[in-house]
Structure prediction request, 219 residues.
Amino acid sequence: MSKAAKSTTSTSTASTSTAERHPAEGRVHWKKTAAAGLPAFVAVGVLATVMAQGALAASFAVSGTAFQVSSSNLSSKGLASYVQTDRSVDGAGHPVALLGIGEATLADICQSAVVDTPVGKVVFKLTAGGPAGNVTATHLVIDGEDLTGDARFGTAEIGRDASTLDRVDGVRGGAGKFGLQAGDIEVKGVRSHAWSATGGDFRLKGLKLDVALDGKQCF
Prediction:
């Protein structure tokens, strides 16, 4: 082989070696990228699953304004509850009973809150159900200050460690916390003051939203 050919071969080999060590600008090592991004994809997947289960009801800052919730009848195939603290943006804490309801059916629902505005206090009110049909929600989670009504609990377990609750997916408290759960529930004449409410899938038949200076609250 001539000296020129050897020189060309050596240059080509060196270039190939350099290219393998240092990819051209704009090229991506997909295997390395996938490996680096895997933890993020897993984290997003877990977060999405937990959100769908309603377990993040208190993960956001509450508004600092409690609201009323009422229904003439509430039933569910599962209930889990424990005490925790919601926090508003100013850092204030609001002790609540987190109520996780697996598959809720409500004959009707009313939610209302008094809100300060530049023109005075107004009542923000949402109603649904009644003649239009039942309201349903999966993985409904309410952070409430209180709850009143005539209740029937099936297979109730009161005083169970909150970390072992298993009637409603994703609704569990810290180890050592007081908890309760039931296989199924029915509450007539529901009235509650709450700081937050979320649901995996709300279906509100006959939805009506009203904002009025002279509005009336739910109760």
Remarks:
- The chain has two helices and eleven strands.
